[in-house]
Every structure is written in C-alpha cells, then in structure tokens.
Amino acid sequence: MARVCVIGAGAAGLCAARHLLVEPCVSQVDVLEQATQLGGTWVYTETVGYDDFGLPIHTSMYKSLRTNLPKEIMGFPDFPVPESEKSYLPAKDMLAFLQLYADKHNVTPYIKFKHHVQLVKPKAGPNGELWDVSYKDLSTGVSETREYDYVFVCNGHYNTPFIPNIPFLIPLNSDVMHSHDYRVPEIFTGKRVLVVGAGPSGMDIALEVAGVAHRVLLSHHLSEKPRSVFPENMLQKPDVVQLDGNTAIFKDGTEEEVDVVFLCTGYLYNFPFLHESCGIVVEENCVEPLYKHLVNVRHPSMCLVGVPYYVCAFSMFDLQVRYYVRSMNGSFSLPSSEEMLHHWEQEKLQRAARGYTRRQAHMMGPDQGGYYSELSLESGAAPLPAVLTAVHNDSSGKFLHNLPSYRRDRYRLIDDNNFDRYYSSLAS
Ligand code: FAD
C-alpha cells in the first residue's frame, strides 16, 4: 500500500488527491499546502511581494481577470463548471468551483494548510526507492521530515517571473514591473506604458491598462499580428531591444519615450524544494528529463503534474493523474528509465525539427489532442473528448482576433482556423 505526498492544493493537487483517495493501492494521502486556503493561482490578493510568513506571493491574478477559455472547457471531465449566464468566469468563480470540487470529493480534510515543503530527496528503501519530504509547519515554525512511496509535484508554474535580457533594464525597480505583481490598472494612470509580451496575460493587461494610461505600446514578435481593433492609444511595436533611460529602442530602429516598462514575459518553472538528487533540471524553461511531460525519468515514483501549457488545464491534470495512478496500481507498466529517456530525447528532436525552441519544450496548443490521446492509449485511461481541443483552439483564435469583445457573449464554437498560427508565432 502506497503512501503519497502531494505538493500543492491548486487545481492540480486537488485533482491528484481526488483520484488517489479512491485508489485501493493507496493507504495515505497528504496534501501539503503552504497557503491558508486551497485554489493556488485562483486566490486573488491585493498583496504583492511577500506573505505573512515571508514567502513570495504565489498568485499572479489581477483583479479584473476573467478566464481566457470558456467555462465549457474549464472543468474536470467528471466535474464540469456549473451552468451560468456567462462563459468566461471571474477568478472568484473559478476559486468557488475548486472549493466545490474539493468538497464533492472530500479532499479538504487531507490538506495540511500552512505546510511549506522545503526539501524532497530520494532514498533507498528495503523494497525500492522512497522519498524524504521535509516541510515546515508555518503556524508553529516546526520542521518535520516524512517518508513517502510516491511524490506528486503540483506546485504551479505561474509564479516565478521570467525577466528577459534587455540591455539596461534594471529588473523590478519602480519603473519596471512584471505582470506577476499586477493587480489593478490605476497605477498606470496618465503614463506612457511599454508592455513587453503578447501572450494571453500581456494582451489582456495591455488592453485594460490602455483604459487609463496616456499611451500603451505593446511590444511583441507574434509573426501574425492580432487583428483585434484596439483603442487608439494602444499601438503594436516589434521587440524592444534596448532601453536607454526613458527611451525604448525597437528592433525596427524606431524609438519611443516611455515612463514604465511592464514585463508580461511569462514565468519560469521552479522547483526550489527538489534536491539535485531528484534528477530534475530546468534550463531555458525546459524541465527534464520527463516522460510524457509528467514522469520523472530518473525516479519514476515522482510525477510533475501540469507542466504542459496551452492546454485545457484541469482536464489535462485529470488525465495526467489518471494515467499515473494506473501505472501505480499495475493497470499498465511504465517503460524502463532507459526507454523513457530515449522517448524524451526523441520528442525533443521532433519538436526541434518542427521549429520549436527549447523554451517551447512543453508547449502544446495544436499538439494537445495528440498528447491526450497518447496518455489514454498507453495507460488505458478514459480519453478526453475531442471537442475540448476544438473549443480550446477556437477560443484561442477569438482571443487573438477579437480580444476587446469576445468574452461578452456566451461561447459558441466557430472554427476560424487562426489558432495554429497564433501558437506557432507565440514568444519563443
Ligand atoms: P497553482 O494554482 O499555482 O497551485 C499550486 C499550489 O502549490 C499553490 O496553492 C501553492 O501555494 C502551492 N505550493 C507551491 N509551492 C509550495 C511548497 N513549496 N510547499 C507547499 N505548497 C506549495 N488556466 C486556464 O485554464 N484558464 C485561464 O483562463 C487561466 N488564466 C490564468 C490567468 C493567470 C493570470 C494565470 C497566472 C494563470 C492562468 N491559468 C489559466 C493557468 C492556471 O494557473 C491553471 O489553470 C491552474 O489553475 C494551475 O493549477 P496548479 O495546481 O498547477 O497550480
């Protein structure tokens, strides 16, 4: 009987616990969560910087955020988002949904809140490999180490800002901020704002900031320019290559005066608690070696849930967890470590041959349907419905070309074929 540690009580950790708790081969499930409540990313707070326990603020939610995907594909396969008037929900509704999910599956009693995982190390056990997980109880300050058979890493991937290498950019001084610290647009009132990056957050935030700023320059290298009709004070620019005082110099040689540089440049995968003996390396935002973007190849009794992006997140978490649990209970066998490593190396080569950069090692987008099929075919886990992928792709196209208004209406599937180009042109 297996003792399992789940690190994090966001959507991925809750989903892991939901399946582990009903799994006969599992005897113990501990969900270690550093925060005071479940929900992870979806817990909005006005605070930026550090929390009451001196830990970096986890969430990157801003006050006005509404999902960029319709609720029809935001739920779990066995627990859809309840019917409501709107398709694109505010963060508080997503948080309430996760609470409902945890209640429905009686997960909350298994969450140890205010438990900050500090170190995870593999060790030899009498019948194979075990894990030592060390954590601090933030209420008492007492640290403890417990032994587990399996570790599910569900610590989230949208909280460590990626700061690009732009000459003379001094990270995070008063005139440079990252979207991780963005909450409300008013801080930019009357300013000339340079938004760097046109991923989902960059475009959304640039539009919101344009409502109060003197001017917004949206600098990006999407190969296909968004066709959305933006406000007059919002202009698109190519990559910014240098900052010289208040002057921003762009790739096409043009220069503009700016008051604030606002980095919407995304996030870094970060596993500060994994000891190097865990064998997981993150370079250029590629987490490796992972089999199927999930299983730690060097120590297969550890999985990292939620690494792929541009996916139907909650459904993918569910499939990844069901896949992995089936390997635990003997429904299928994972390949040997050598075979898994070979598979991962091959996948990297195939991605490179298709023009993906190393930073895009875990990007799915148009590949997501194939990824979901692979997971269910190999493990025998029930597949995800193909319509999820179709809606995700369609909604991404709407985001790109109808940003100011696409969330106003109830979602309807109209395939406009823009999505492939959006994914492939996204920031490298
Ligand atoms: P998280 O929600 O980040 O949860 C991780 C948990 O782990 C947290 O509770 C954290 O406190 C805990 N933790 C971390 N480290 C430790 C530690 N050392 N010890 C103990 N606990 C720890 N996805 C969508 O599908 N649709 C959207 O519209 C959408 N919008 C987004 C908007 C923004 C601004 C951001 C940042 C993300 C958005 N996402 C969206 C992605 C979203 O993050 C995922 O959908 C999903 O909620 C991630 O869940 P998670 O469990 O992997 O991570």
UniProtKB/TrEMBL annotation:
Signal peptide limits: 1-17
InterPro entries given in the database record: FAD/NAD-bd_sf, Flavin_mOase, Flavin_mOase-like, FMO-like
Annotated Pfam families: FMO-like
Enzyme Commission number(s) from the entry: 1.-.-.-
GO MF annotations in UniProt: flavin adenine dinucleotide binding; N,N-dimethylaniline monooxygenase activity; NADP binding
Cofactor(s) the protein needs: FAD
Record's keyword terms, sorted: FAD, Flavoprotein, Monooxygenase, NADP, Oxidoreductase, Signal
Family: Belongs to the FMO family.
Record's protein name: Flavin-containing monooxygenase
Biological source species: Papilio machaon (Old World swallowtail butterfly)
